[in-house]
Amino acid sequence: MQTSMTGKQTSSVFEVMKQFFEADGWRFAQVADKPVLRMSFNGKHISMHCFAEAHDDEELFVFYAVLEDRAPQDKLEEIAEFITRANYGIKLGNFEMDYSDGEIRYKTSLSVQGGVLTTKMVKNQVYANVHTMDKCGPGIMAVLYGDVEPARALARIAG
Would you say 142 and 51 are in contact if contact means Cβ atoms under 8 Å apart? Predict the structure, then answer.
């Protein structure tokens, strides 16, 4: 439990995060003794691995959707261009890529310092995340496997 600025007792970020996933019917597993939950999501277009992280000390909730496919070394620049173009104008969250191993993920986060996290807030972050990854996933796959130029791949999914 934590205390809000009004002096009211509130649940920890981890407790609220876990409450959301339980109530919404997600199957998940906690990662060791860490405040991290691991799960999968099957979208309309792609499947992804997901991680929900609670940073109670910072009053921060972070959610990642990670593509199962990784960008090989020879596609890193093209994927970097795609995600840079995709990120432009996104209001909630962003794509990231690890240049060392080609991992591609989408991140949403929410700071609740001085406020109270609710399951509705967690839901908004999670579904904005997985829906964006699901929408953009076919474009990423087109760049990875179809030799489609990044701008063209993005234009295909934007319509």
Answer: no
